[in-house]
Amino acid sequence: MILDLCGVGGIKAGEIHWDDLQFERGYRAFKATMQGARAAELLATALFAKPVREAIPPMVELIDHPPAAPLSAYVRGRPVTLTADRRLDEAVRALAGRF
Predict the structure, then answer these.
(1) Number of domains, the chain
(2) Beta bridge partners of 78
(3) How far does Cα 65 stand from its chain's mean position?
(4) Which structural domain, as residue segments, surrounds residue 18?
């Protein structure tokens, strides 16, 4: 299980390219990494916008009882339907097969 709560820390670089989230108009590895870090930071901010005593138990529950699906997402403790393109689905299955 991967529980992503990371952010970029004190690094000032990076921004989210809302008009080109997939970097179809010029992929750069560092820019993509920093965009992912900023997105993770936004996610962590949303998760921790409530007191720790309320934010931690749902994460512990998922760690103790992981979902059966190889890729899952939750918002406020409820599963979210994922619509991934075929390439992402194949990549997740290939990665899951390595563990």
Answers:
(1) 1
(2) 75
(3) 19
(4) 1-50
Name the 3-class secondary structure at 3.
coil
Q: What is the pTM of this model?
A: 0.41
Residue 12, in any domain of the structure: yes
Q: Is residue 9 part of a domain?
A: yes
| Residue 73, token pair as written in the block | 């997402």
Q: Contact at 8 Å (CB) between 71 and 80?
A: no
Q: Are 38 and 16 in contact (CB under 8 A)?
A: yes
**Structure confidence by residue, pLDDT tens digits, 43-54:** 767 666 777 788
Q: Which two tokens stand for residue 54?
A: 């309320």
CB 2 within 8 A of CB 62: no
Q: What is the pLDDT of residues 4-37, one digit of tens each?
A: 555 555 566 678 888 998 899 999 888 888 888 8
